[in-house]
Amino acid sequence: MTRPHPTTAAATSPRGSHTFEQLAEPFRRGLKLHCYRMMGSISEAEDLVQETYLRAWRNFDRFEERGSFRAWLFRIATNVCLDALASRTQQRRFLPDRRFPPDDRMPDGIPADEVAWIDPYPDSELEGVLDGTPNPEARYAAREAVQLAFVAAIQQLPPRQRAALLLCDVLGWKVSEVATLLGGSTTSINSALQRARTTTERGRRQETVAGAEPDAAQKILLGRYVKAWEALDLDGFVALLKEDATYTMPPMSQWYAGRQSIRAFFKWAWKDYEGYRLLTTAANGQPAFAAYARAGEEWRAHSIQVLSLGHESVSSLTLFVRPSSPRLFSAFGLPVTLEG
Questions:
Q1: Model-level pTM greater than 0.85?
Q2: Residues 177 and 220 in one domain
Q3: 328-335: long-range contacts (C-beta < 8 A, 24 or more apart)?
Q4: What's the domain count of the chain?
């Protein structure tokens, strides 16, 4: 017998007034973001949301309507993520600068497949999730808690610490609620939270927290960035970088620190390309571009580029490149080739 899809099955609530789908579907994007923060992977997040809905549907008759249905779903999603992390040998995902020292050599083009890499997260998936009034118990602003620097930092935490930090400091749960979910006393959860906060703050780069929109000066900066890339203007591109800017390009392990090292890389890399076309997008609450490289009569997916900005310069640049870039273009709703 075919098993019904959990969000379309006509399961009824204990009061018989709502279907499971009607109750659960409005929380899908919030759950996906929570799973992404836990896992660092958009594809894993999608799979784990499906598993969350399946578990919730199977246990729907146990839901007590006097409680919060949203909190019930997030409890299930957290357990789904913890189960997934417990089943694998690699419980952490990385950006290159979290795993390797900076390099001054040119890369060999071979991806570091032994490392699990963090994915970018499309801002189109954040609509309606970051717009709500923040919980007064949350320590992080909603937009700050989706930036790449934050996601990379929390990935270095053990899974239970990661869950405690996200539930308390991002979603605003009470410590007692987290203790009930994860097991243990409120004292042990407070201790885990303190360790998690210390590790996270130590591991985060000091970057400008992105607003909903770049300011006027940053919009000019982004326009100059596009022109430099599309014209292969090395001097113009490097002039936009902070002196201590960083450049990473997962799944390659090499990364570069400082304007001169970044210049040396792009002088080497750009000589093999005829040109680029950049389309504006957004990822992790940050400015981003989808870059296409010319290949004969078409343009092929090259990279999803996520930028961190100061007021007048680019402080960090992360390019998600092949072989993962075509998959990510699809996740961003973008074609992998452009004509003309």
A1: yes
A2: no
A3: 328/42, 328/119, 328/120, 328/304, 329/290, 329/301, 329/304, 331/42, 331/43, 331/119, 331/122, 332/122, 332/124, 332/281, 332/283, 332/290, 332/304, 333/122, 333/124, 334/279, 334/281, 334/290, 334/301, 335/301
A4: 2
pLDDT in tens, 6-38: 554 444 444 444 688 899 999 999 999 999 999
Pick the closest to residue 254 from 111, 125, 126, 149 (CA basis): 111
Q: Which residues pair with 294 in a beta bridge?
A: 299
Same domain, 186 and 311: no
DSSP label at 306? E
**Backbone conformation region of residue 214, classed left if phi is above 0, alpha if psi is from -120 to 50, else beta:** beta
Tell me how far apart the terminal alpha carbons of the chain are, to the nearest angstrom: 50
User: What's the DSSP call for residue 162?
Assistant: H
Which residues constitute the domain of residue 71? 20-89+152-202
How many residues in total does the chain contain? Answer: 340
Alpha-carbon distances, residue 162 vs 2, 11, 186, 254 (angstroms): 36, 33, 16, 27
Which of 141, 173, 202 is the last residue before a domain boundary?
202
Question: How far, in Å, CA of 39 to CA of 173, rounded?
Answer: 20
- Is the separation of the CB atoms in 47 and 32 below 8 Å? no
User: How far apart are the C-alpha atoms of 142 and 144, rounded to whole Å?
Assistant: 6
DSSP string, 18-68: SBHHHHHGGGHHHHHHHHHHHHS-HHHHHHHHHHHHHHHHHTGGG--TTS-
Say whether both 51 and 167 belong to one domain. yes
Q: Is residue 296 classed as helix, strand or coil in its secondary structure?
A: coil
Residue-wise pLDDT for 243-295, tens only, equals: 999 999 999 999 999 999 999 999 999 999 999 999 999 999 999 999 999 99
Using the 8-state DSSP alphabet, how is residue 144 labeled? G
pLDDT of residue 340: 75
Helix (H) or strand (E) holding 79: helix 69-86
CB 298 within 8 Å of CB 337: yes
Question: Are 67 and 174 in the same domain?
Answer: yes
Q: Which amino acid is at 204?
A: R
